[in-house]
Structure formats: C-alpha cells, structure tokens
Amino acid sequence: MRSLLRKLRDESGQTMMLVVFAIALTSTLAVTLTDLVTSEAQSSGQVASSDSAYQAAEAGIDSYASKLLDDHLYFLHYVADGESTRVSGSLVTSENQAWTGGITWSYPFGQDNWKPLGNGYAYNLEITGPSGAATQQQQAIQIVSTGCRWDSSLNQCGSAANSARRTIQTLLLPSSVANFQMIANKAIVYGSAATTNGKIYSTGTIQHDGTASGNIYSEVSVSGSVNLISPGPGQPTATIYTPSTNPTIRSVLPDPIDFNSFLTSISDIKGASLAGGVNLDARVGGTPSAYEVVFNPDGTFTAAACTKVGSSDVSEIAPTCGAAQTFTVPSNGAIYADETVIVGGTGAAASTVNGRVTVTSNNNIVIGNNISYQPNTNSVLGLVALNNMIVAYWAPNTLSWQAATIATTGQWTDTCGAFSYQCGTHGTMTFTGSTATNNGGSMSMFTTRVYDYDPNLLWLLPPWFPTVDKPYTVLMQREIAGP
What is the value of pTM for the model shown? Predict the structure, then answer.
C-alpha cells in the first residue's frame, strides 16, 4: 500500500509539473505570437507606406509631365506647385510662381516645398532643364520627384517613426517634327554640293550624292554616292536605314512617320493670332500680294503690305512694300496672314529674332534675307506655309538663315525649283534648322548648299509647332537615393 501511494504521489507530482510547464509554455508562446503579429503588422504597414510614398512620387512626375504637354517650355516659365525654391544669381523664386531666371538654377534650400495629395502623402519636385548639348541625357528634361508620408498637423513629412520616403528620377526627351533636319512625304534629292548634318527621313526614296553626318532613313531605298561621316569626335559615323538594310529602318523607327498626324493646324494658329497674337490681315490691313516681316534684336518686328511687280511671283522679283508698322513679338508667339509672308525683308535689312515665335501663311512663306537669333535669348523661329517654303531669287548671293520650317502641302525650295527660274545663279546657302515638306524640294539656285541641324530644336520648340504621336519619350526612369 505504501508503495502504491508513493507511486501515486510521484505520478501526481510529475503531472502537476507538466501542467505548470504547459501553462508556462503557453504563456511564452502567447507573448511570442503577440510580438510576432505586432512585428508583422508593423512590417506590413511600413511596406504599404513605402509603396504609397512611391506612388506619391509617381504622381509628382505625372503632374509635371501634364504641364509639359500644355507648355513645352513650362520649366522655363514657371516653378511648379511642390517644387523646391529655385535660385539663379540674386533671383529667388518659390513654388507656383513665374520663373524669369533663365535656363539654369539651383535648389540651395533643399526640399522646402511639398504638394500634399490629400491622402496622407505628398511629393516634392526638383527639375533640371535641357542644355541642348550633344547627348540625349543633356537634351532631356530631368524630373526628380520625392514622395513621403505627410503629417498634416505639422505640415511636413512624417516623424522618424513614420517617415516613408521614396525618390524617382525621370528623363523626358521631347519628340517633335523638329527632331529631324528633314522629314519629307516624297522622294528627296541632294546633289553633290549638298552637306547635311542632321537626321533625314522620307516616306519615298532618297538620293544623296553629297556628304551626310546624320543618319538617313528611307521607307523605300537610298541611292547615290553619299559620303557618310561622323558628326563629331567620339560620335559614330552616319548610317543608312531602309527596309532592306541590316539592321532595318524598323529597328530604329518602329513605325513609319505619318506626315498627316503632325501637320500644324493653320486654323488654330490663325485663332491664336486673333487672341493675343498678331494677325497681319487685321493689324496691317489692305489687300496686298504679300506681307513683309523683319525681326529686330530688341524683340520687335516690322510688318508692311507689299504689291508684286507685274505678273511675276513675289519670290522672283522683289515686290514694292509700303510703310512698315512696328509690333512686339507676341507672348503667345502667333503671327498669321492669309497672304504670302516674306521673312527677312526686301531691302538690305536682315532679321534677328528675339523671342519664341511662329509665322504662318495660308499661302507661301518666302525667305528674302538672312535670318538669325539674338544670342543668349533662347529664341526660336517657326515658319509654317500652307503651300510652299521658297527662297527668293533676290535674296543675298550668300544666304544664311535659321528656322524650323513646314511646307504643309507644297515644297521646300527656291525659284529654280518652283519656277525653273535663274538656276545656279547664287553662291552658298547655309540653312540651320529643320524642315518638314509634303512634296520634297530642292535648292538648285545655289551652287553650294549646307544643311545644318540646330540641336536646340531637340528641346526648344517653336510655339504651336506640331509634335509626333508621342510628344515625350521616357529616356530613363529609376529609383534613386533621395536628395
């Protein structure tokens, strides 16, 4: 009996110890599980906050890109909502303000401005404008957008315990008609005296017997004895791309360029000229054969009504022009006339453009004299003709002109090409800019022709100028460490 009782006591004690151990283990597990659940919840919350901060940074990029679609030079015109304070020299400009400090600036005060999104998050922007230099990175608009969890009570990003923050760097490359030196909806022919220094594209054939430092793109074929060279030290030699080359044109241009998709709306520019621009028909008046427009270095231009001589076109024989009126280059950049517009002047005065402006004619544009830009002014000239872009016979023997041009339904040419008039009578023509032409063209009035591309047109577009199907290409987007 005693032996049995002793055994029962021993077993009872062991059972009691097991119960105590089980209770202790359960308590320990409960605390551990509570800590684990709390940790997982905190981790999950941090991940969600981090993702939301990233989405806030993306919202900042989307907001700025939408502004660029409305105004290609928004970065030169305004400091955006949520953008850090800009400084250029003695000029200090905070967010949501007009910017007049030029093309370069710094952010010495850091991320001092934020745009709350109303969902507990906010973004900050820092922008770098393009320089127009050689590389694509230098031609792009850089947007650095930082998203953070926002403490509305303190009007700042959250505390250290709740400070989710993500930063995205994006490079947007403008895509425009002006990215090419020449876009033609017809065959193009360059003679042995021609030198082209920008990209050339044609929906038809291209014959090039001169020298080319820019790539040549044809949807059909390229012929001739063109001399392909490098555009500069360290840069690749120009290349020909057609459907039959290796690689083909589709490897670099995924789709053919649809000329009709980017034609400027003449009626839109006419409307803009009547609403803040300069409509020559209304402001100068009369029923002229053409209007003469001469740009001045001080940001003004003169305009006069002109009458042609006999039955000759105004590009063949210089017309007689009346008294000139002076206008300021309009802020919206729109100058329009139903009649032909002569740019450069019929007299000895050359044009120096100071401002961003597009001259549009519902007939022809005639180039009558040298055209240049006032230095250090970010000036650009667009010339849009419903019909032809013609260099006048009475233009200087040595002609230099600069613009982005479009011959909407006609040719980009001279009096030799337009009327077979006085071919080979002039010396050298140097054109710097870009051209889009529906029916091709030629410049055989000049014995030497030099076609230079203006790299500033990669980002500095004339007002009202057409873009291609995708106005901006995302050159790069990545997450980086915050400023």
Answer: 0.68
